[in-house]
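How a chain folds remains the central question behind the approach discussed here. This step matters because it turns folding into a mapping between discrete strings. The sequence in question and its structure tokens are set out directly beneath this paragraph.
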Amino acid sequence: MNKETLLQKLHPEIEAVNATMAREFESIQSALLAEVIGYGVMNGGKRIRPLLTILTGRLVAFTRMPDDIAKEADITPPEDLYRLASIFEFLHAASLLHDDVIDHSGTRRGQKTANRVWDETTAVLAGDYLHTKAMTMAGTIGGEDILAIIGNATEAMIDAEFLQMQTVSDFNLSEENYFTILRGKTGALIGSACEVGAIFAEATPEQTESIRIFGDALGLAFQMVDDLLDYQGDSGKTGKAVGNDFSEGKMTLPLIHTLENCDDKERHLINDLLSSTPEIRIKNIGRVTRIMERTGSFAYTREGADTLIAAAIEGLAPFKDSMAKDTLRSLAMYVLSREK
């Protein structure tokens, strides 16, 4: 399934998620809060996390059905599945609002951040609202088990943020620590989005474990591709300057691999740049990129993402062949080919 076909197939589900989220915000009394939430959440987006919840729910439900009872296309997911799916977009948006304040960011995806359009207090409070909304919905719709999954994912995200803060000046960050941070910052939310869909559809423990494998591998690969796009992406599509991670001193996999495989002179240069100002780093991004290419760090990261996506797809093996399974497989492949 190519990208255009995939997006066309997913469009009705994306529209259903958007409509569900809009209904959840109808109770907001403050015009300012509604405006900020609209800016931070209802501004388009791929909706990958909620889509994963819906698709894994459909996958499990169809697999559990006896053969020839009904066609997959005739299965209409209940509204509560879409409401649970929306939770992951709320949590994702909340983390972005907070991250932009923490990082003093002025733009995201080519647009001004909420903390610049309004102010930091407004952005933080809007993020707090989304987080509280998400946890309330998790408890009232999903019950204790789903609330625990989402709560654990949120804890992991915050814990990973602190770990990353502690390692900002650690120029010898190991791959092991990198993946620990990755699992918390990106993997936990994507993995729990998959797991919640499966549990809502009453998956068996074995099915839930398979979905967990899929989600974990997909989440890690998603971030590794992000790491590559930061150095190799088109800024017009990503909305970020090339080398933004390096300018901020972030130790992502291409840089970690480079430092482990470059010669002493190159390592000394990179460490000097990491110890300097963001302005000096960004001026020298071309030199660093050439070293990364020589050490095969981009290829190494790409191979790692390829391996993870293969593992994710293998996690779908126990389930019946279906439209949901085919779409999840295509969505996993899209993660590898995305440009933003």
